[in-house]
Design a protein that fits this description.
Layout: H1 19-25, E1 35-37, E2 45-50, E3 53-57, H2 64-76, E4 84-88, E5 93-97, H3 104-109, H4 114-134, H5 146-164, H6 171-189, E6 193-196, E7 205-207, E8 214-216, E9 223-226, H7 229-235, H8 244-260, H9 268-295, H10 306-318, H11 327-331
Antiparallel strand pairs: 1-2, 2-3, 3-5, 4-5, 6-9, 7-8
Helix pairs in contact: 4-8, 5-6, 5-9, 6-9, 7-9, 8-9, 9-10
Length: 339
Amino acid sequence: MPQLSPEPCLPVEGLPCGASLWLQNLGIEESRPLNPVPGDASARRYWRLGGGLLLAHVPDKEEILPFLRVARRFARAGLPVPHVHAVSIAEGFMLLEDMGPEDLKSCLDSADSVDVLYPKAMELILKLQAAGRVCNARPFFPAYGADLLYQEMWLFSDWYLGRHLGLEIVPSAQEMLRSLYAGLADSALRQPRVWVHRDFHARNLLFHPFRDALTMIDFQDAVSGPWTYDLASLLWDRYWDWGKERRGAWIFRFYEGLERRGVRPPAFEDFHLQVRRMALQRNLKILGIFSRLAYRDGRRGYLDLLPRFWGYLMEGLGGDPQWDHLQERFLAWAPSGRP
């Protein structure tokens, strides 16, 4: 007797297969309006269901457990994260608390004062770090160690120089890059270890509609790492270049915040250099990641962001007494001639 093929799974109202039935089993009315939320660089998708609920579909199911572990750890430490109402790891669904549509970027786009909002974001980083200092729960967050730091910087070599510019890197340039990567990794590894969000930027910080406070999202890659990383992620932003003077003032404000919390940082000049070198490491990584998104994943719009991060990179090299001589070598790799 011939076997019949199963009926194809048809998505409902733009939802992935199985989502409508899963929501019904949770008591979510099928007639509830579904409003898709604009996505980011990942394959995750979100829908607002009304009533303070958000449906998430995570195609890479291996991302779900890290998200749940970090969410639980952060929530128990009193950090602002969305509540998780229900999960189906097998199907890749999560029902989350909807924190509303207002993220830090949209607030700044509507002309709200950056000098009011950025201190709130920096205070949240300080709160995150303070929570990590007093929380000894295990398993510990993964270490942001040398292997990961180098892996990120080699994205610049492989994807920006190799794929985007189509260069075969000569031995002298390879040696120069190895020396730079080693110095930046050494600077990061010498810093105190704290809880690091690892993608702390304006789109991942939401304002709850009923609270004048920021909530963190997209934190599943949290690690134990350098105490300047999230600050560098916030200040060297993809959407706005705030300029060296303003970034310097914010770094000093953050430094004072550490002191207020009883932390004893090094001299400000040394701390400032730590932040700038962390930003240099991160901006190398981002140039590589954006190139990879463009060529591997077909998201060509990320190429339009390369000039801003190239500017950050050149600024970082030029302001560093150890690597300012590399600016001339890097000039030949500027992104202006991209296709």
